[in-house]
Design goal:
Length: 322
């Protein structure tokens, strides 16, 4: 029973304190209006510089294969590279826009943080990337987004060309080596043909052997016999080696053709100019600011000030009660 009385007194006391605060509703309304007006003024362009946002959506294309990375992951790596970031910072003088003293010891860290706050790259659910650029100048916001796309293509192309250049050098070396082998084999084969009269081992071996045997059977001697005998001896001594070298030459020519094709493909990849980002949504000049959101600032300030005043009245009411 005593406990119920204590609760009743507590709620009764609390209600009186609450009612005491509510009696000041006119003052609370005044606080709400005054704080809203003040927040509206302080959130204006004279006090807070408005920011504008330009967006673009790009789709990765013509990217080489690196490890297990997807094309989106590769594109993100390029977008977040130091080279791209430093280029954009320098070209648009972002130190000045973000009001960062470049001579300050931690200026670079501050700049990187501001850059990440104003320029973002997010993957969409359609496997594309959304580029967002914010600036105090709407034209500049669009130019930053445009320049990111252009510079991104340049950086990727440079990296891809470097990779293909390595392929060009390797394949050119292989082609040259095979060409040297072919020239060496052709020189030896030409020497055998000129010096020993061997032109086609298989055909000559059959015909010369048959003629040589006829001379032997008939017992004929003379110039023709000596010529046939000399060619027969040459075929017997050098023919097989000549035939093997011809086989090596044919294999080398086939290998040379294959390497030459690979070289031409590598050279074509090295010299051709490709776009590595298809622009699905082009950047536009924004006509509305994205920061600050004045109505939210005004509402938050007015509600916070009014709530604070209300709490003060509750505290004052409790003290009076005591």
């Amino acid at each position: 029973m005593e406990e119920e009385n204590n609760y009743s007194e507590y709620f009764a006391s609390s209600s009186k304190i609450f009612l005491f605060a509510l009696k000041k509703w006119k003052f609370l309304l005044g606080v709400f209006v005054a704080s809203a007006l003040m927040a509206g003024v302080l959130s204006g362009p004279k006090f807070i510089t408005p920011k504008y946002e330009s967006k673009a959506i790009i789709y990765p294309a013509n990217l080489g294969e690196y490890s297990d990375e997807t094309r989106i992951e590769q594109m993100q790596q390029y977008l977040e590279s130091n080279e791209l970031r430093n280029y954009i910072i320098s070209k648009f003088n972002l130190y000045k826009e973000y009001e960062i003293d470049s001579s300050y010891m931690h200026a670079k860290s501050l700049m990187v943080n501001e850059y990440r706050n104003h320029i973002t790259f997010e993957e969409t659910r359609y496997e594309s990337i959304e580029i967002t650029a914010q600036s105090t100048d709407p034209e500049k916001a669009k130019k930053i987004a445009d320049e990111i796309i252009l510079k991104l293509d340049e950086i990727i192309r440079k990296t891809e060309r470097k990779k293909y250049y390595e392929h060009v050098i390797i394949n050119k070396k292989l082609v040259d080596e095979k060409k040297q082998q072919i020239d060496s084999l052709q020189a030896i084969i030409t020497e055998y043909s000129t010096k020993y009269g061997i032109l086609d081992y298989l055909v000559q071996a059959e015909m010369v052997t048959e003629g040589y045997l006829e001379f032997l059977l008939e017992g004929k001697k003379g110039k023709d016999y000596e010529e046939v005998k000399e060619l027969y001896d040459n075929l017997k001594k050098y023919g097989r080696h000549y035939h093997n070298m011809n086989g090596q030459l044919n294999a080398a020519l086939d290998e040379y053709d294959r390497r030459l094709i690979e070289y031409e493909v590598a050279y074509k990849s090295y010299t051709m100019v490709l776009s590595h980002s298809y622009v699905l949504v082009s950047p536009e000049v924004p006509d509305e600011k994205v920061y600050p959101i004045r109505w939210l600032i005004v509402l938050t300030a007015a509600v916070s000030a009014t709530f604070f005043a209300f709490i003060l009245f509750i505290i004052l009411g409790s003290r009076k009660k005591l």
